Amino acid sequence: MSEIASHRMLQTDQHWVDRLSTWFADRCSPILVKEARQAMKSWHFQWTFMMLLLAVVAWSFMGISIALFNDETQESGGMLMAGYMVILGFPLAIVLPLASFRSLAREFDDETIQLLSITTLSARRIVLGKLGSAALQMVIYMSAVVPCVAFSYLLRGIDLTQIAMLLLVPAVSSMSLCCLGLMLAGFARFNWLAILLNLALMAGVVACYFGWCGFNTEFYRAAGSSDMIFGTLMVLSLFIGTGYVAFECATSLISFPSEDRSSRIRVAISLQLLLAIAAFSAFMYVSAPQNNSFRAEIFVFGYSTCITHYLCLVGAMMVSEQTGMSYRVRRGLPTSLLGRLLWGLYVPGPGRGYLYALSGIGCWNLGILLLLRMDAQVGLFEVSGIQYSQYMPLAINFLFGTIYLTMVYLFMLFCGRWIKYGRQLVGALLVVVMYMMMAIITTTIDAFLFWDRSYYNNSWSGVAQHANWPYVLGRLGSSASDFEATAVVGSIGAIFLAMIGCGFALREWVISPVMVPQRVQDEDKRRAMTQAELNKMDGVSLK
After folding, report:
1. Cα gap 398→362, rounded to integer Å
2. Global pTM?
3. What's the CA gap between 151 and 142, in Å, rounded?
4. In this structure, how many other beta carbons lie within 10 angstroms of the beta carbon of residue 118?
5. How far is it, in rounded angstroms, from Cα 372 to Cα 391?
């Protein structure tokens, strides 16, 4: 022992690089180290990287040959860069999300997720470790294209700003798709469900890859224009918001049932919608600065419809949560009444989820209405200038969204006790089934009653379709006045159902917090002191 202790390497101080690397290694998640080692040794990573190198070399020779044949060697950098990005998009958009899905689904198959949950690692660190492994693979894949990027820049035809945007979009979208894969893997508690979700993810990432190929082609044709720049920012905002929501969902799916699983998700959804509507609005005002009617149609038929359908879908998943709240969550509630009222919509619970989704549908449609009035320079309470073709879709979306959301909430409230597993998936599936069944039923009734329209008054034909949400929206642009009776009847039904749903949901809105026991306070103090000592020791070691 004395010889080992007197060794020169143990006596001398470490270099600052060694101390920094040691500090960084201690801060890295063990999941990151494990996943990175497994990924580097896996056959799909090695074969994908090899095929990526071969494809890059082949396109380099092919692209130069095409440029020489067309006599466009002076400005061929953009064409070569577009081909490189199409090649790079395959591993980033398809291979990495599927690998992320399998990495978490394997934990459920091997039943090792229970061992991870009882360790000191939190659910957030577990998900971040798996995302870190995906990010490391992404960096390695992108490193194979870096020399080709420099080669494309030297051939001219593309500048550094465009190169940065072309590299940023696949990187952000790949991380967002990896978060989506982890979220779907959190639902894969059964083998048959894992297979279905894996197939759904595969179809989604393939669609995203073809979308990336189309975006890359359009970027090459219209590079440098303001429309393309704002369109790229719009795509980035969409992927960033969706990835953040998927990340919070994946974290909540593998956390303890006694923890707060809903607050961060609802905050993420609010930020996602705010970021998306801001980016889409900026893109619309840049691409069509003088066409007010076109912007209005996009707002009412595009934004309002997408937001209402999205909140109806995620609201169906929120109302499918388990009732009740653990004492751990109630300890973290605000102590003031005003704080509990403002934060009540973000607290877990099916009733609060229903109120969150319902208020979101109403507030976002009202916000679009105010934005239209500001764009048209019409006063808030001014009646002149109102066009039913623009404002009726907002009311129709709100009414149908309220009806569908309330029906799902009441169904899960009275019949959800018999659903033990996958309640959120059942809620989302229930909304989709209701959409499809309503469209099938209304179309069938209209076909049987009015199959020979020559014997009936044409004004009565298609009356059953007034209960079909997509049909009504499709006809509003040409004949909005024909659906005034639909709006009145829908308002009566929506108000009636909303009063019933709010009557059950308001009982959960305000809930009193629970005092923190003295034992928990002492444990928190000891944990804080231990963490402070560790941080102090790390600071001394880095000097």
Report:
1. 6
2. 0.84
3. 15
4. 8
5. 9
